[in-house]
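User: I'm putting together notes for a lab meeting next week and I want to include a structural view of one of the chains we've been expressing. I don't have a solved structure, so I'd like a prediction I can at least talk through. The sequence is below, exactly as it appears in our construct file.
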Amino acid sequence: MSKQQPRRKREHKTDYRRRLRLLKGRKPRLVVRLFSRSIVGQLTTYIATGDKVEISFNSMELKKLGWTYNCSNIPSAYLTGYALAKKAGKIKEAILDIGFHSPLAGTKQFAFAKGAIDGGLNVPVSEGMFPAEDRIKGEHIENYMETKKDKVQFSKTKKGVLACFEKVKKSIK
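Assistant: Thanks for the context. Below is the predicted structure for the 173-residue chain, given as structure tokens.
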């Protein structure tokens, strides 16, 4: 009779080898999870009965701060990481946990990490993994909207991704 795998491994939700490596660091984990409409960031610590979420921030909360654009793009990932780090308070360092995603340079996960670092967290990530500064601020979105300005889908969208980005970043405390 073959031994059955743990449920979370069967459901492709947990990579236990990677998780063990992260937990051996004995530091809080900076968890980033991407969804189709939002990005969720959490600072979690390990306890014997399961992980404890110390602080959480959802990119949908950026809407309350004045963000008028998509909540699952690179600028919103950066702002989510930045806001989470500002909420962290006493937690000053963490290990990045990107789950099953491949660690590719310039992705939303690393925009999130860059935001957390700029917000005050010490996260060991190579500088070469972060997206370019113009992508973090949303210049690529503004340029795209400018080329498609006659399209109906952008007729209701206000211009000024950069201005909105800076306004929201300043409002995060």
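A couple of points you could mention at the meeting. The first strand starts at residue 29 and ends at 34. The helical segments are 7-10, 16-24, 74-87, 108-118, 133-137, 139-147, 161-171.

User: Perfect, that's what I needed.
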